[in-house]
Amino acid sequence: MSQVTSPHAFAADMVEDPINRALAVYTGFGTSSFPRARTADLVAQFGAAAAADLRERILLLYLEMQFPLPDEGKRSRKSVTERATEQMRLRHPELTEEGLGVLAWAYAFGLR
Fold first, then answer.
1. CA separation for the pair 11, 82 (Å, rounded)
2. pTM for this entry
3. Domains: count for the chain
4. Residue 1: inside a domain, yes or no?
């Protein structure tokens, strides 16, 4: 007898990359009115070794958000933040909508 697996069961078995939660913790997303480095919060949540690795990944993502964007011409109504987020979505499938939202928040704040 073959066992049928529902798509929901498969999704539940997948383990989400901790980078998404780490982005929120590190920036203070949802608890702070502006993004700032919260390394101590990252360590408290993930432990020293994991926090060091996650912090490095976060800083690399921040750097990558600064890369020049492809020219979409003058017809695009998308903001720079939307365009940068779209590029990150394409390059980083491990980022959830929450993770992308945190990156967009920090990026947009930096543009002010």
1. 27
2. 0.80
3. 1
4. no
